[in-house]
UniProtKB/TrEMBL annotation:
UniProt subcellular location: Cell outer membrane
Keyword Cell cycle found: no
Leader sequence residues: 1-42
Species of the source: Phenylobacterium hankyongense
Gene Ontology CC terms, in alphabetical order: cell outer membrane
Lineage: Bacteria, Pseudomonadati, Pseudomonadota, Alphaproteobacteria, Caulobacterales
Principal location: membrane
Protein name: TonB-dependent receptor
Length: 954
């Protein structure tokens, strides 16, 4: 028999350990650890074909049989991933209630830089505060902010995932403020295995195809092992012009033109049927004698009808963006970004001696995402001169009669170009490791070490990006008096400047040549390199009356660097969006840690065991100096059935390279200006780094109870309270927040706000700063029950697993510049909030080769945000209804059937239906010219999806 040992389990000494010893039964428990049953059965639940020498869990660096760490840990196994029909591990993790706002291909459809990323975010504290490890080693970052895109992780190699839902910096270092996600790979593949899956949505889009193959074998009488795996997935996403009903309703955030402080009305409304008041696909005139008219296809002027609540950008009702109202703004952009990803992984290990094993891991991954991000648009800001060559003689005469030399117009320039980003990420990593054991001081010591180097090469091309200088020249078209040809006015004085005049009057009027002249491709290429290594040792050098004292210690180093090169126009801020700059930066880290487990009491009245777990880590950063982190916790087994655990820790996160050295990135947004009668303006909103940042520090407290009654075999109940108080949080405030704070008298915010001579907003710079505090507290719940149905009623076949997982967030509070924001139930796009309640309830029935699985998930709704004006009125409310969005219930079903295995061969057929009842998330809207229907970070608007596939092994 192979040896299975899990730190955090009671193994064969526990009655529940005896009962759940079968792999088929224990698999049902894997997800049910979220509130803290720990990882008591992680070893038993491993895939039966995988031989494990030992299992060491992530909650502690101490390797000690029978020790249960005081920090709650979730373990998700291979079978749980398979039952859910997950093709990307991020998709599954984001269904666990402890995870907050997710970064996914759907949620990044309006984001050029992060387009297509799959990131996980514990407690909604930010993906950069969740440390992602692979086999307990730091993985090569996918972004300059140090985050690991799970698109580059080979799901086919994952044996289990361990999630520590509490501060773990003392054990694992910087970034583990909210917790740790440790992806454990299969170590000893045996034979060939593969999987083919295909899926699509009810609407026939979001098509997904995935294939995966793996092989493993041994040589030299089992002393050498080799594993090779690869997978490829192509998700087509959901493109523009989608016919989905939620898009046809055109929800958005509109300014309230009658708002006055103290009149009881909000500054903004969320409502449907929101149209653009100052731009159309063919152009609408906003000043002069033609004001209130729009250019139809072909260039003729026709009436433009204004709706109600008309503002500087939006209105309710009225004319749409097209003359025939055949399309609205919400239907113009990508609904969910397509992602193509592939990876290759190789692992070889060999026994150098009976006590020393060497390993080599090599991996390569590539991920590509592209899509129709947005359209260059102008909201009543295009200046047309009276002598524009594309105006008719009658139109010029009317302007002359009105003594007007120019007029303004607005246009959504779909017929000129789309901003079409193509993001490609290539990650390669090589790791060499040694581990072994030796006897000294009367005990057996275990040691391990590794060195790794990795490189992520990220490239971005934004095709169709408008060149500001060329656009300005091209729209000023005149007749050349020398030959009667239409040219740019600038060409009259500079005949060789190459300018191509553009006709903007009516949809379809711009020529292909003019469109090519006014647009280009912005480009950047960035390399993120990480060199890392560590040596660790653990043992039990002496004992106290209650048992042996365990110690783990280690030294670690890490060096990360970023080198980014951008095109010349971007470096000169010459494009309409983006404009990344060249950057170079690096960070070096040296660390040392010690962790111990000291048994305090054992086999006493009301004390089956009482263990102390403590750790301390000293970290020295090249840029920000030395920081000390620590953890202290108690694990108290009152009886075999009842365990109490508590932990207190100080955790840190140092500024990431992207936060220190981030290049200037230009984007645009619609902001409401309370200093200008609540008008809305299209504003440049660049973001840039700050080399003066200091590390964040967090005080984390967890307290929980685990109850596994012996008189109800198979029942597990746990409740865990968490409290995280983060100081000097690094963040870039939202542009609207900066404007509101400046208006409210927060002087330090006004340095980021720029206005023109008329006092109108033109630019709001989002700089990374150390804010005051980010606080959160809540409770995780878990109830799981597993039993053969024959125990309930003898004739019933099969095994049943039931579980409920839930997270209640009491508060998530941002405290900065003396302004307090409650982010619980702030579910609007960009609100940075979290639903107060998230839970899932599932049932699994397994009878021989057949497995049926169902899950009901709930995400609570909320307000757009919880911001209030000085009179205490919510600044953004739902128009004509309750100021609350309903939550979302999602039901998933799946079935698996294993064909009769023979001679070590097996084939499993499976299928699933996600979001069975086709429920749609609440229409929270996006305050943007091309709006989205909901906040994809929390809710699903893709709807019902189908998947079928097959797995084989031989």
């Amino acid at each position: 028999m192979h040896k299975q040992r899990a730190a955090g389990s009671r193994g064969s000494q526990s009655r529940r350990g005896q009962y759940f010893g079968s792999a088929s039964f224990a698999a049902a428990l894997l997800l049910a650890q979220v509130a803290g049953v720990g990882v008591a059965h992680a070893a038993d639940a491993a895939d039966a074909s995988t031989q494990l020498d030992e299992v060491i869990v992530t909650a502690s660096r101490v390797d000690r049989a029978g020790f249960t760490a005081p920090t709650p840990t979730t373990t998700v196994g291979l079978q749980e991933l398979q039952k859910s029909g997950t093709t990307n591990v991020a998709d599954f993790l984001n269904t666990i209630p402890a995870f907050g706002a997710a970064t996914t291909p759907a949620s990044t459809a309006h984001n050029s830089v992060g387009s297509g990323l799959n990131l996980v975010n514990l407690r909604s504290l930010g993906a950069n505060r969740t440390l992602v490890l692979v086999d307990r080693e730091r993985f090569t970052p996918s972004t300059a902010t140090g985050r690991v895109d799970l698109n580059v992780i080979p799901t086919v190699m994952i044996e289990r995932v361990e999630v520590v839902t509490g501060g773990a910096s003392a054990a694992w270092g910087s970034d583990a403020v909210a917790g740790v996600v440790n992806l454990i790979f299969k170590k000893n593949l045996d034979g060939f295995a593969g999987e083919v899956t295909g899926g699509l949505s009810q609407q026939g889009d979001n098509q997904d195809i995935k294939t995966a193959l793996s092989w493993g074998g041994t040589a030299l009488d089992g002393r050498a092992r080799l594993s090779i795996a690869g997978e490829y997935e192509d998700n087509r996403g959901i493109g523009r012009n989608s016919g989905r009903d939620i898009l046809a309703q055109n929800y958005n955030v509109i300014a309230n033109p009658t708002y006055k402080l103290g009149n009881g009305q909000p500054q903004n409304y969320v409502t449907s049927n929101v149209n653009v008041s100052t731009a159309t696909l063919g152009g609408v005139v906003t000043t002069g004698p033609f004001a209130g008219q729009q250019f139809a296809p072909g260039g003729a002027l026709v009436p433009f009808t204004y709706g109600t609540m008309r503002g500087s950008q939006y209105m309710i009702g009225g004319s749409g963006i097209s003359v025939d109202n055949s399309i609205n703004a919400a239907q113009l952009s990508q609904f969910a970004n397509p992602v193509r990803r592939g990876n290759l992984y190789l692992r070889t290990s060999w026994d150098v001696t009976d006590n020393v094993e060497a390993t080599v891991d090599a991996s390569y991954a590539q991920s590509t995402s592209e899509g129709y991000l947005s359209i260059p648009y102008d909201l009543g800001t295009i200046t047309i001169q009276r002598d524009n060559a594309y105006l008719t003689a009658a139109e010029r005469a009317a302007l002359t009669a009105a003594n007007v030399t120019s007029f303004k117009m607005g246009r959504i320039n779909q017929d000129v170009s789309y901003n079409y980003p193509v993001n490609e990420t290539e990650t390669q990593r090589f790791s060499f490791g040694l581990k072994g054991k030796f006897d000294a001081l009367g005990t057996t010591w275990k040691w391990d070490g590794y060195v790794a180097t990795g490189l992520t090469h990220f490239t971005q091309k934004i095709q169709g990006n408008r060149i500001t200088a060329n656009w300005t020249q091209a729209i000023d078209a005149v007749v050349n008096p020398a030959n009667g040809q239409i040219v740019c006015r600038s060409t009259l004085t500079n005949p060789t400047n190459g300018c191509v005049p553009i006709n903007l009057f009516g949809q379809g009027s711009p020529s292909a040549a003019a469109s090519r002249y006014v647009t280009g491709t912005s480009m950047l290429a960035a390399d993120f390199r990480q060199d890392a290594g560590a040596v660790n040792i653990s043992g039990e050098p002496f004992s106290v009356p209650a048992g042996p004292v365990s110690i783990a210690a280690g030294l670690e180093f890490r060096r990360e660097s970023v080198h980014q090169v951008a095109d010349a126009i971007s470096n000169a801020n010459g494009f309409n969006i983006g404009n990344p700059h060249d950057i170079n930066g690096s960070e070096g880290v040296k660390e040392a840690f010690v962790e111990t487990v000291v048994p305090l009491l054992k086999d006493m009245t009301l004390v089956k065991s009482l263990d102390f777990n403590g750790a301390i880590r000293e970290t020295e950063y090249q840029t920000s100096g030395a920081v000390t982190t620590w953890k202290a916790g108690l694990s108290w087994s009152v009886t075999d059935d009842l365990r109490v655990r508590a932990a207190r820790s100080k955790d840190i996160r140092a500024p990431a390279l992207g936060e220190l050295y981030a290049s200037y990135i230009l984007s645009k947004g619609t902001l409401t200006d309370p200093a200008k009668n609540n008008q809305q303006f299209q504003v440049d909103t660049p973001q840039q780094g700050n080399v003066n940042l200091v590390p964040e520090t967090a005080d984390t407290t967890t307290f929980g109870v685990v109850y596994q009654p012996s008189f109800i075999s198979g029942l597990n109940i746990s409740v865990d309270y968490y409290n995280i108080d983060l100081h000097d949080a690094i963040s870039a405030l939202g542009s609207q927040d900066i404007v509101n704070r400046c208006y409210a008298g927060v002087a330090e915010m006004c340095q980021y706000v720029e206005r023109n001579a008329a006092g109108e907003l033109t630019r709001v710079t989002r700089a990374n700063i150390n804010l005051s505090e980010l606080k959160t507290a809540g409770v995780d719940f878990e109830v799981a029950y597993n039993t053969p149905l024959s125990r309930l009623y003898e004739p019933l076949p099969g095994d049943l697993s039931l579980r409920f997982l839930g997270t209640y967030t009491d508060y998530l509070t941002s405290v900065d510049t003396n302004i307090v924001q409650q982010l619980v139930n702030a579910v609007g796009f960009g609100a940075n909030g979290i639903p107060q309640w998230k839970w899932s309830a599932s049932a699994t029935w397994r009878n021989g080769p057949l497995t049926l699985y169902s899950q009901l998930r709930y995400t609570e709704g909320g307000r757009y945000d919880n911001l209030k004006d000085a009179a205490g009125v919510y600044t953004t409310q739902v128009l004509g209804g309750k100021n609350w969005f309903d939550g979302q219930y999602i039901t998933d079903l799946s079935v698996q059937y294993e064909l009769q295995p023979s001679a070590g061969r097996s084939v499993t057929l499976f299928g699933s239906v996600k979001n069975v009842f086709d429920t749609i998330g609440p229409p929270v809207g996006i305050g943007y010219i091309l709006p989205g229907p909901t906040n994809f970070s929390f809710y699903d608007d893709i709807g019902r999806q189908f998947q079928i596939g097959a797995r084989f092994h031989y």
